[in-house]
Amino acid sequence: MEHERAKTGELERSLTVFLAGAECPFTCSFCDLWRWTLEGPTPPGALPAQLERALQELSGPAPQRLKLYNASNFFDRRAVPSADLPRIAQLAEPFAAVTVESHANTIGPLTLEFQKMLSTRLEVAVGLETIHPIAAAYLNKRLALSSFDRAAEFLIEHDIDLRVFVLLGAPHVPAAESIEWTVQTVEYAAARGAARVAIIPVRGGNGELERLQGLGEFTPPTLVQLELALEQCGPIRSAVVTADVWDIERLPGCDSCRSQREARIRTMNASPEFPPPVPCSTCA
Ligand code: SF4
Ligand SMILES: [Zn+2]
């Protein structure tokens, strides 16, 4: 359960439910979501059963937003059986909005079918990752910028909200240019109609990133880089830009100012008015 800043400036209560299902067919070099997936296609009925159980545990007023993250693509029939969509839509009824995630290439007619079943507003979260041309080609994501543009246009044309994930520290982006490319990618997403953009620092641990690190092609992003990237996105007003703070304690940083920087990032996520920079004599 989180509080997320909405475009109105208000904080929205949002519940993320992680659903276990079929593995994503893409094999992005930075991704470790396969650890939470099943072998073979998702059995029909499995996702509604998981969602029902998660919602049963909720107490108090329903959050405004329900995020369904299935570690794959919601509109891939192998990951989410079509027969389960009506029940999932029904379970989403108490929420004002529902977010699902999808590769840009799997957004299409099934997205509209699901939208029709919903009585709530649909948002689709899409990983743009980076617009750095070389890094994007090496990510294994098989995502051309033109495909992202088409998907963004399609969603907006059909009155579906677009949330975009942007990486900080994508492999093959030179470490010294890391912040700059993240900010440019966020700007790119905002210019194509994204209502929300989340900056996600790449987290090692999937083996492939460690291999790339050994080759000098990946440098783990730091806490300060995350703070600066978010700060530099401040002038963007057409989208709510936030930094992903899951596992923030794992980001390399200075022990003297870590807690103030983490607090500053959380404050910047919650409000468009940024607090003053953190002074630190140790890492300044
Ligand atoms: S498309 Fe998304 S879920 Fe699939 S491998 Fe890439 S980052 Fe992971
Ligand atoms: Zn410091």
Strands, helices and their partners?
Layout: E1 2-5, E2 11-18, H1 46-56, E3 65-69, H2 85-91, E4 97-101, H3 109-117, E5 121-129, H4 133-138, H5 145-157, E6 161-168, H6 178-191, E7 196-201, H7 208-214, H8 223-232, E8 240-243, H9 258-270
Parallel strand pairs: 2-3, 3-4, 4-5, 5-6, 6-7, 7-8
Antiparallel strand pairs: 1-2
The structure holds iron/sulfur cluster (SF4) and zinc ion (ZN).
The site of iron/sulfur cluster has 10 residues, from loops.
**Helix-residue proportion:** 25-40%
Q: Give the beta-strand count.
A: 8
Low-confidence stretches: none
Provide mean pLDDT, rounded: 94
Instruction: Output the CATH homologous superfamily.
Output: Aldolase class I
Strands in their spatial order, largest beta sheet = 1-2-3-4-5-6-7-8
The name of the CATH architecture is: Alpha-Beta Barrel
General shape:
globular
- Assembly state here? single chain
Q: Compounds present?
A: iron/sulfur cluster, zinc ion
Stated plainly, the CATH topology is called TIM Barrel
Reading the helices and strands in chain order gives EEHEHEHEHHEHEHHEH
Number of distinct helices: 9
Number of structural domains: 1
CATH level-1 class = Alpha Beta
Task: Measure the end-to-end span.
Answer: 34 Å
Strand share of the residues? 15-25%
Detailed description of the structure:
This protein has one domain (2-270): TIM Barrel, CATH 3.20.20.70. The chain contains nine helices and eight strands. It is globular. The mean pLDDT is 94. It has an eight-stranded mixed β-sheet. By secondary structure, it is an alpha/beta fold. The longest helix is centred in the middle third of the chain and has 14 residues, at 178-191. It has helices at 46-56, 85-91, 109-117, 133-138, 145-157, 178-191, 208-214, 223-232, 258-270, and strands spanning 2-5, 11-18, 65-69, 97-101, 121-129, 161-168, 196-201, 240-243. α6 runs parallel beside α8 and α8 (223-232) packs parallel to α9 (258-270). The two termini are 34 Å apart. Bound molecules: iron/sulfur cluster and zinc ion (ZN). Zinc ion is lined by residues 254, 256-257, 280, 282-283.
